[in-house]
């Protein structure tokens, strides 16, 4: 039960609200996300809600790109299973590993696309 709660809270941290700023750079997103503790009280922070919304939009955009590419017969940017396990620490580690100069030129969607591609590469 605790693992499920942790997974739900982690997903909520990165997937959710419509009130987030649009156009946030990946560097800004990562900098803010690194300041938020990964615990149940994190969702009480307004910044967590903004990040949650930004990440939700990015995941939806990448999901749509995957579906569109598959429908068109092209190789999608990632090949995730129907349901993915989101480990916030792994996601942040991947995003933090991207050099800051590059993160400053990337959108949050670019970062999520990069993580999805590394986590769920397409065969062949």
Q: What is the strand content?
A: under 5%
The sequence of SSEs as H and E is HHHHHH
The biggest beta sheet, please?
A: none
Using DSSP, what is the number of strands? 0
Gyration radius from CA atoms, angstroms:
14 Å
* End-to-end gap: 38 Å
Mean pLDDT value: 84
Q: Assign the structural class, choosing from mainly alpha, mainly beta, alpha/beta, alpha+beta, or little secondary structure.
A: mainly alpha
Shape annotation: globular
The number of helical segments is 6
Question: Which stretches are low in confidence, meaning pLDDT under 50 for 5 or more residues running?
Answer: 1-9, 11-21
The helicity comes to 55-70%
Describe the structure.
With 124 residues, the chain is mainly α. It is built from six helices and no strands. Helix 3 (46-71) crosses helix 6. Residues 1-9 and 11-21 have low confidence and may be disordered.
Offer a concise description of the structure:
This protein has 124 residues and is mainly α. It contains six helices and no strands.
Helix and strand topology:
Layout: H1 2-14, H2 26-35, H3 46-71, H4 88-97, H5 100-103, H6 108-119
Helix pairs in contact: 1-3, 3-6
Keywords, please?
124 residues, mainly alpha, 6 helices, 0% strand, globular, disordered N terminus
């Amino acid at each position: 039960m605790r693992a499920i709660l942790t997974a739900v809270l982690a997903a909520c941290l990165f997937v959710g609200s419509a009130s987030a700023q649009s156009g946030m750079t990946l560097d800004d997103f990562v900098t803010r996300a690194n300041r938020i503790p990964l615990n149940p009280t994190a969702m009480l922070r307004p910044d967590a809600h903004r990040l949650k919304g930004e990440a939700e939009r990015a995941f939806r955009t990448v999901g749509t790109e995957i579906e569109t590419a598959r429908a068109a017969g092209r190789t999608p940017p990632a090949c995730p299973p129907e349901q993915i396990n989101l480990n916030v620490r792994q996601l942040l580690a991947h995003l933090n590993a991207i050099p800051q100069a590059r993160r400053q030129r990337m959108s949050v969607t670019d970062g999520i696309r990069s993580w999805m591609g590394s986590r769920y590469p397409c065969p062949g």
